[in-house]
Amino acid sequence: MGASGWDYIAPWRGSxxxxxxxxxxxxxxxxxxxxxxxxxxxxxxxxxxxxxxxEDTWAGFMATQGTHSILDIRHLVPAETRIDxxxxxxxxxxxxxxxxxxxxxxMPTRAEYERLADTTxxxxxxxxxxxxxxxxxxxxxxGVPESVAFWGVSGD
Length: 156
Description:
A hairpin with a 2-residue loop joins strand 4 and strand 5 (about 145-155). The protein contains 6 helices and 5 strands; from the N terminus they run βαααββαααββ. The model has no long low-confidence stretch (mean pLDDT about 90). Strands 1-5-4-3-2 form a 5-stranded mixed sheet, covered by helices on one side. About 25% of the residues are buried. The chain is globular. By secondary structure, it is of the alpha/beta class.
């Protein structure tokens, strides 16, 4: 299928973990809504169940094809995790230092994020976490978390 990028901005739900979980639930419902009931997992937990080396299981499907969406992410890792420590299917927040380097402060707004996303170069977008991985960034309004931007790449 090849590699493809994906991105979302989701409303803040109290933490990055809760925001990502809520977004994944929403994307899961949309992704599988058009499939016959017998050809869709019951929930995200089932999507990752089974032997990843058996293509007849959902885990096998996820390991070989995936959904090319945020559903391909299983784990949120700390921002400080080094790239060589990533194991795949991970979401890594942009660190405070990276945020300050990119925006000049540590509470970027959605408008600032969108402006940066439209540029040809940004250190936060050019950091290569590899395939089947993503990054995220809390976006603020009036100094309070408003949403989280998620982006990544799925596929080979």
